[in-house]
């Protein structure tokens, strides 16, 4: 498993902003063509048609960006495996307190923790951090909360955790409505500029360009007013959330247990817990006594004290062949060494013989070879099977894939 320190946001425009920019580029010409076509079919004066087209181009670009960005932003979190619980050490606490000027729909004031999970090291990060991630957030092994001291060369991979703010979602929703209302107002006001632009003669195109810019500014103003209204309502909603008060008392080096949805953030390329649904302070650090080891933090998560993964996640084999996987167990609690019994309870046919080596039970930090021997009569198919680990502390399950295919030729 490989983790690369860094994230997309520093290197390229995030996908949600890319979508907004694409729809801004598409939205302007689309509205120009639509309004000019309607005006032409209605037999409108060419002067009015030109003004409509110019105003539509400006307003359409702003509307396209607002709707494209907000729709992509709301769909950026890719659910992975449902709710997860993780205990560990707080490496960083942050919140964006200041909305960007004239870009209220992009304001994202979520309350965030960056957590070093128990059992996670720089060279062997937690599965929750790395599985399926393009990038991870990394901080210096000696924690420097609040100083934003990322060290991409030597950093400790962390799990990003967010308590959501209603300001972002409501800012987007009201901002989209404001873009539509501002665009409509701009069209209504600026179509009256047609006779004025016509009076400029050969300079009429410059007048229409001014109309286009002014219509975009009116739509942008509508977007910003809508976003600010959404932020105000969001503040009222946020005031009733207890988790925000918990975040306000957090300290670097505190031990936490966090529970929430485990997702992949397409904008940044990392995995995170979002939304955080509960936060339990196990040990609060003090300025004189911070913790510097995640494994020194107690684990209050329910369930098993180990993680389970299968590598590679997919194997291809011909009928009569054998596919071999590595089943890796990662101990979460160093003080617990309960043996784990492995099994494949579902997903395979009777034509597949399952063998674990060494045989179960095994230690909770072992690597076990899983062999799937297919018979010559095994049906050609795709099999998604379950590997289950059972210990006294609980059960973990993970899926993998076996492709049985006839050889070519």
Question: How would you explain this protein's 3D organization?
Answer:
The chain has seven helices and 14 strands. It has 409 residues and is of the alpha+beta class. About 2% of the residues have low confidence. The strands form three sheets. It has a five-stranded mixed beta barrel with strand order 1-2-4-6-5. It has a four-stranded antiparallel sheet with strand order 7-9-12-11, with no helix packed on it. Strands 8-14-13-10 form a four-stranded mixed sheet, with no helix packed on it. The protein is elongated and about 90 Å long.
How does the SSE layout of this entry go?
Blueprint: H1 15-41, H2 46-74, E1 77-94, E2 111-117, H3 127-130, E3 137-139, E4 156-163, H4 166-190, H5 194-198, H6 204-239, H7 242-248, E5 255-265, E6 270-283, E7 306-311, E8 314-317, E9 322-331, E10 341-346, E11 352-357, E12 367-374, E13 381-391, E14 394-404
Helix pairs in contact: 1-2, 2-4, 2-6, 4-6
Quick summary:
This protein is of the alpha+beta class. It has helices at 15-41, 46-74, 127-130, 166-190, 194-198, 204-239, 242-248, and strands at 77-94, 111-117, 137-139, 156-163, 255-265, 270-283, 306-311, 314-317, 322-331, 341-346, 352-357, 367-374, 381-391, 394-404.
Structural class: alpha+beta
The topology string of helices and strands comes to HHEEHEEHHHHEEEEEEEEEE
Oligomer: single chain
β-strand percent reads 25-35%
